Amino acid sequence: MDQESPKNSAAEIPVTSNGEVDDSHEHNFNRDLKRSLPSGLGLSETQITSHGFDSTKEGVIEAGAFQGSPAPPLPSVMSPSRVAASRLAQQGSDLIVPAGGQRTQTKSGPVILADEIKNPAMEKLELVRKWSLNTYKCTRQIISEKLGRGSRTVDLELEAQIDILRDNKKKYENILKLAQTLSTQLFQMVHTQRQLGDAFADLSLKSLELHEEFGYNADTQKLLAKNGETLLGAINFFIASVNTLVNKTIEDTLMTVKQYESARIEYDAYRTDLEELNLGPRDANTLPKIEQSQHLFQAHKEKYDKMRNDVSIKLKFLEENKVKVLHNQLVLFHNAIAAYFAGNQKQLEQTLKQFHIKLKSPGVDAPSWLEEQ
């Protein structure tokens, strides 16, 4: 019974005939294992078994595709669980190949193809990048033009028309300002004349000795106030028409001119960029940049040509509309002023009828929507 004691696995150490520890088996095992793993040995093909103490094979590692020297006896071999082995096996097969052909390894979760779904943050970042690059090029072009180092595209005929338009706008604004001042002063004078006529009329009733004199002055002031209101209506109509011409029609054309000037700066900026690239060397690195710059230059050239045509058309129609509007308004202003200071009430009223001007009675509010119905 004492001689049949259980074997201790830690005591089973093979020795040679010289009494030294035989480690050739362990060396051969490590060498063969290193050779077999890179050549495609999957962890799912490996099976580790542990037998009892009485078995003839102790601590054997079996591999499907591996043919090597027998393994040396190991002290104690533990078999991993099936769940852990399956997880290790899934790591080798969890490879997803997208449309581009590149292999990407994912741990878990759904499969996402980068070519099909666009990231909004990346799109905004790309827009900011393009805007920054365009702003830099335009700013550099403006600074170069102001310093006299850069060249700019000039359409002499169109630039002359734009300068005339801006100069005329300033003059029309001055006329509009003076006409508004005249309207304000005339309104105050008409208001004073109306009050003075009422005062004369009141005194003509209370002063029997000066009844006729006060009555004449009262009628005269009231007539002047009435003619002044008619003239005031003509001046206000003149102001409204000139204001529409200056602050709407001309301003709209000048907004198109500003867009044309911005397109011209962008066109010159990308033209200069393309010229600099063409002067440099041509190799595999610069040719894609030159092609991209040529494409951008062509796009901005088309935009510049379109805006130049739009400005030319608007300037043509603006000139025709300006002549027509100012002709009618200047005739109205002249006839009204001449009839007022000549005291010709009939001609003054006829002038307003000619231009379809309706005067509002003093102290009468506009009719409500119910009364209009």
TrEMBL record:
The keyword Metal-binding does not apply. GO terms for cellular component: cytosol; trans-Golgi network membrane. SMART domains: Arfaptin. PANTHER family: ARFAPTIN-1 (PTHR12141:SF4), ARFAPTIN-RELATED (PTHR12141). One of its GO terms (biological process) is intracellular protein transport. Residues 22-35 have a biased composition (Basic and acidic residues). Gene3D superfamilies: Arfaptin homology (AH) domain/BAR domain (1.20.1270.60). Keywords: Coiled coil, Golgi apparatus, Membrane, Phosphoprotein. This is ARF interacting protein 1. Residues 153-353 form the AH domain. PROSITE patterns: AH. Residues 1-47 are annotated as: Disordered. It is found in: Golgi apparatus, trans-Golgi network membrane. One of its GO terms (molecular function) is protein domain specific binding. The keyword Phosphoprotein applies. Residues 155-182, 290-321 form a coiled coil. It holds the Pfam family Arfaptin. It comes from the Eukaryota.
